């Protein structure tokens, strides 16, 4: 790598600096190696230590984070074979580094640099060259010396370098730091040295920063996860702590062993995903974590390998650029991780969110693979799912052990407390609305409506209004099963079918429908849609999961949509009163007149 965006400095001053560096012994703590170790330690914040007896295995010194360096104090050109052999040595070692830094008092030629970089990339080793190009306005080695100017001056003074030389070097370094463009060049170098791909602590810091930012901002969460998983974002009803549940999840994540899966289970809208995020935010030193929405996985995923899958998500959620060399470095790093010992925290967490949102995926096979991989490499797998889907379609065929955390709705007492705190009179709410508001997601939607002026008071709420706003909120947050207009049409067509069945005097299974294969068209549900909508709107029949019916409240909403559409058609070219009259009798037969019309 070369340092871009460097300013222009006068060559005589730089010559004084390089002359002082070349006057040092080439190796040892008192030589050029020792100076480079001190400079890199200052810039990176990591402790670089020298190898015990000069260069060993292609390195003169190293930090504990997988970054090593080789120091070459030369007066003439460095033979290419020396450079190439050093990179091969470190790349072919038992524990290759993530980054190899070459510090040299002479120039590394362009052709040699290209060959070196290409070879190191194939070995999965990053390369950073701090040399002294003759035509460079600011040689990279001069840049890093100026970035640690005080350390360089102190180092020279401690080695009894002539005071006049020390003073001249100090003046050069101070002048470099004052030049326009120096800060940009220094920032570019620091960013490279601290890039996520180059050292695990850097990757963990980047991952932690990115996830925390996403959990606090819906827009960033949608960009990263494809859905608004942001419990800490500003909202009309701020997310409430569920301390006991959060602690249970944290303890389960940190203690799960031998491929044990941590499963957050509950009904739709109970806050399973948000609970994971809240629990994770409370981990003092969170391990590497990837959040994987289930709907982002293709149906062929279970037939693939876990390692490339994990590497791709880690690159994405550490904010790095996906390259072959970077994948090789991650692969080598993860392959060195073995099973965790008793009491050791996990090295990584994989959280697959919303299994029921990708219902046709072969979950037992894929979860078995991922949990086995996590056990072998010291990680842990966590999932969230609608409880009924998990036990009906996943659990029975799942080989790994499962630690389940039940995520309930608000209790009556908890909901009453929340309403009292927000000065909402519980007695003014209908029992049906109060019961629905125990669902944390619906409660949040209700307060969003109030805050946005959609309603003046909670007395304007109805179950149908809550469910309709639930559909709209799902689309906004990226968790809707299909576009709002399409889903409303689907509900309406179900209601029209029910009405036609009543008109034809069908007496059995008037509310029962067959699921249809994906891609077959029509209004009936596919298995995937049934898995996502199977609580508020549709419900599978217990005796036959291929059949489903409209849920009680879903039926009222569907009839309302159907009635509106019928009246709109009549208004365009017919008799509205006649159309309404034709619909009232079938609706009355379902005992839904009040809910539908009013």
Automatic annotation (TrEMBL):
<protein>
    <submittedName>
        <fullName>Uncharacterized protein</fullName>
    </submittedName>
</protein>
């Amino acid at each position: 790598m070369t340092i871009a965006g460097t300013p222009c400095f006068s060559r005589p001053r730089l010559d004084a600096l390089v002359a002082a560096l070349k006057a040092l012994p080439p190796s040892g703590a008192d030589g050029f190696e020792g100076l480079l170790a001190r400079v890199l330690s200052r810039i990176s914040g990591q402790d670089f230590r020298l190898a015990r007896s000069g260069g060993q295995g292609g390195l003169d010194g190293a930090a504990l984070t997988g970054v090593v360096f080789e120091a070459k104090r030369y007066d003439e050109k460095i033979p290419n074979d020396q450079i190439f052999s050093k990179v091969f040595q470190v790349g072919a070692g038992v524990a290759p580094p993530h980054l190899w830094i070459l510090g040299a008092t002479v120039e590394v030629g362009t052709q040699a640099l290209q060959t070196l970089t290409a070879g190191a990339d194939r070995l999965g080793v990053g390369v950073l060259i701090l040399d002294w190009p003759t035509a460079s306005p600011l040689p990279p080695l001069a840049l890093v010396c100026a970035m640690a100017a005080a350390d360089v001056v102190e180092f020279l003074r401690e080695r009894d370098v002539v005071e006049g030389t020390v003073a001249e070097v100090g003046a050069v370094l101070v002048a470099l730091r004052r030049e326009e463009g120096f800060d940009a060049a220094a920032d570019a170098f620091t960013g490279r040295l601290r890039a996520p791909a180059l050292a695990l602590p850097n990757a963990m810091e980047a991952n932690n920063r990115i996830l925390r930012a996403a959990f606090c901002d819906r827009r960033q969460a949608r960009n990263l996860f494809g859905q608004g998983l942001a419990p800490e974002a500003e909202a009309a009803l701020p997310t409430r702590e569920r301390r006991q549940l959060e602690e249970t999840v944290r303890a389960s994540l940190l203690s799960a062993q031998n491929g044990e899966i941590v499963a957050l289970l509950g009904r739709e809208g109970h806050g399973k995903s948000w609970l994971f995020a809240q629990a994770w935010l409370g981990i003092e030193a969170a391990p590497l974590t990837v959040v994987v929405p289930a709907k982002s996985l293709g149906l062929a995923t279970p037939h693939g390998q876990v390692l490339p899958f994990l590497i791709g998500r880690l690159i994405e959620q550490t904010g790095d650029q996906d390259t072959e060399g970077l994948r090789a470095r991650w692969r080598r790093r993860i392959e060195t991780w073995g099973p965790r010992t008793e009491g050791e925290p996990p090295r990584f967490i994989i959280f697959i969110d919303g299994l029921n949102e990708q219902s046709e995926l072969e979950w037992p096979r894929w979860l078995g693979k991922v949990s086995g991989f996590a056990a072998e490499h010291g990680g842990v797998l966590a999932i969230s799912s609608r409880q009924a889907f998990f036990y009906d379609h996943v659990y029975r065929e799942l080989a790994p052990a499962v630690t389940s955390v039940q995520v309930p709705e608000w209790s009556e007492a908890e909901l009453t407390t929340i309403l009292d705190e927000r000065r909402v009179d519980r007695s003014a709410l209908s029992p049906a609305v109060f019961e629905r508001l125990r669902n944390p997601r619906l409660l949040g939607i209700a307060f969003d409506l109030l805050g946005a002026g959609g309603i003046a008071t909670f007395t304007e709420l109805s179950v149908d209004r809550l469910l309709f706003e639930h559909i709209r909120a799902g689309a906004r947050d990226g968790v809707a099963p299909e576009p709002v207009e399409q889903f409303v049409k689907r509900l309406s067509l179900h209601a029209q079918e029910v009405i036609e069945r009543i008109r034809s005097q069908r007496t059995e299974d008037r509310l029962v429908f067959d699921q249809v294969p994906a891609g077959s068209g029509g209004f009936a549900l596919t298995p995937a849609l049934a898995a996502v909508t199977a609580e508020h709107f549709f419900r599978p029949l217990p005796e036959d999961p291929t059949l489903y019916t409209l849920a009680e409240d879903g039926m009222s909403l569907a009839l309302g949509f159907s009635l509106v559409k019928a009246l709109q058609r009549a208004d365009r070219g017919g008799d509205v009163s006649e159309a309404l009259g034709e619909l009232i009798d079938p609706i009355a037969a379902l005992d839904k007149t009040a809910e539908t019309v009013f």
